[in-house]
Specification:
The chain has about 210 residues and is of the alpha+beta class. The chain has helices spanning about 35-65, 100-110, 115-135, 155-160, 185-190, 200-210, and strands at about 1-5, 5-10, 70-80, 80-85, 90-95, 140-145. Helices cover about 45% and strands about 15% of the residues.
């Protein structure tokens, strides 16, 4: 999980291949796709996603180059491992720790308070630190210093993204391969019967949601 300035990056992300859909009323594979058609559909999407991921890795590398001179003011260590650095000019990045949700909320709160520039950046950083400490407890260590006293983003690059920590597909566990010709639940004898559909309850829930 990589975040760049509060935004989720697809660097190192994997696309989960899905087995052929099952008809919940019969336990058999849906007749909409043959085994070969579904396999081709999934592998095509996987190839497309691979190119998207390559672009994300390139963007991450370029961002690290462009922000290498930013002075680090906070470094986050989760279970003793460097997972994020925050620096001047809103230069912040993480690896193996997500702070995007906290970043979005903190930024919105700061803007509602009328904060801009360095004041907004400082507010966001403080809120993120508070929320992450509450989330991870004693597992999280935050090292802080005034701008210019903790080195640059470039100084932390190797520790944060070097070697096997680089978020490439090769450095992540692979999902087990799908048996495209596996028997359906009905054929395998594992089907538990059709899904019970309570139409009245469903319509009532939909009406309630519409009127909420």
């Amino acid at each position: 999980m990589v975040n760049i300035q509060g935004q989720f990056s697809l660097a190192g992300a994997q696309m989960l291949l899905l087995p052929r859909p099952i008809d919940g009323q019969t336990g058999e594979y849906t007749t909409k796709y043959t085994a070969e058609e579904w396999k081709e559909r999934m592998l095509t999407r996987q190839a497309e996603f691979k190119e998207i991921r390559k672009t994300a890795e390139s963007n991450l590398s370029n961002w690290l180059d462009d922000n290498s001179d930013a002075q680090v003011t906070r470094a986050y260590y989760l279970d003793g491992e460097l997972t994020a650095v925050f620096g001047t000019d809103n230069a912040n990045v993480s690896n193996d720790m997500s702070y995007g949700f906290e970043y979005g909320i903190a930024k919105s709160e700061g803007e509602q308070r009328g904060l801009t520039g360095d004041e907004l950046t400082k507010y966001v950083e403080n809120r993120i630190e508070f929320e992450l400490k509450r989330k991870y407890g004693d597992r999280l260590e935050v090292r802080e210093g005034s701008a210019g006293t903790m080195g640059t983003v470039g100084d932390y690059r190797e520790e944060l993204f070097g070697g096997e920590r680089w978020p490439s597909l090769e450095n992540f566990p692979q999902h087990p391969e799908i048996d495209w010709n596996a028997p359906s639940p009905k054929e395998a004898g594992t089907w538990k019967g059709p899904i019970e559909l309570n139409t009245t309850a469903f319509l009532a829930m939909r009406e309630q949601a519409k009127n909420a």
